[in-house]
Amino acid sequence: MKQYKQFVLFSTYRGIVASILVFLCFGVTQAKDGPFSRPHPAYWRFWLCVSVVYELFLIFILFQTVQDGRQFMKYIDPHLGVPLPERDYGGNCLIYDPGNETDPFHNIWDKLDGFVPAHFFGWYLKTLMIRDWWMCMIISVMFEFLEYSLEHQLPNFSECWWDHWIMDVILCNGLGIYCGMKTLSWLSLKTYKWQGLWNIPTYKGKMKRIVFQFTPYSWVKFEWKPASSLRRWLAVCGIIFVFLLAELNTFYLKFVLWMPPEHYLVLLRLVFFVNVGGVAMREIYDFMDDPKFHKKLGQQAWLVAAITATEFLIVVKYDPYTLTLSLPFYITQCWILGIILVLTWTAWRFFIRDITLRYKEIRRQKQEHKYEKDKCLSNGDGHSSMLEEQNGNKLKERKL
To answer: What is the signed CA dihedral for 89, 94, 99, 101, rounded to 10 degrees?
Structure first.
């Protein structure tokens, strides 16, 4: 009986995997092309189909009970489905610990783990996706504020101040953003003149052409211009919100589904978002920049938004207690103040300022019109001579 159950389980597993592979093969050959054509359109069609499979997997997990959903992860990895051990992430925050005579800088060395290069490469790739320095910096700083605000919910958000601002924002994130912007600058200056591989005479030229196959076919500079109109401002705010929500989902999903931070599924999810996020950002920018040509939002952008929302729903269902732990009072005050400032600036920039500028323009036009009229009367031009003739005729009539 036990062998029969194992056989049924193995057959079910093979059937699911085979069904997914057939769908991926169909999508790679028949799905609609996206905005990217390098290294090959089939590569991006593959990730579009992976997005559909991942979204269906999330829907399946969402409709399971909490216990069944966590135990289902054992079918992917037998080591999952076990509660995570509690860890102290904050601890001693002294940069120089005089109590440890052998290694007083042990707190710094303890933080220099595999997540440091992951932070750097992560923000390097995010910069290539967003293509804007100030948006990257805002998202980086905002996420640190979110970690401060939510450290009472997730223990791994509790970090030392220098870990937040020096190691994360300045060193890892900042250096990754800087290198990403330098790469974007090089890509914008590069000459995009393609030649067939077999038309290149030298082997060095052929190898160079093969390497450049993994660079963009042409270059589009992202100019978000969030303050140019209310529509673009709301769109940029929405992009930042979804970006931050996707970042938070990374940590909350690990917590509610009992996945260790170093598990390969966490890394696979990040690789997935790097590939689909770049396409989604390009589709969003095209839709914002030229809505007459791009009349609707791209398919990959819709899928990324649906995946982010579904992940958040899983977190809400699987652990509503942790998610509804009330914020500390001073944290609530800070967020209320920040929201009020953003709303005030929005109202001033797109409503009050426009009304004020329109009123000043009308007033300026009236003053110019009045000035021109007075100038005509004082300079003795055609209009003033006619007035003088009329006044002379009136005087003659009075004399008569």
So the answer is: 100
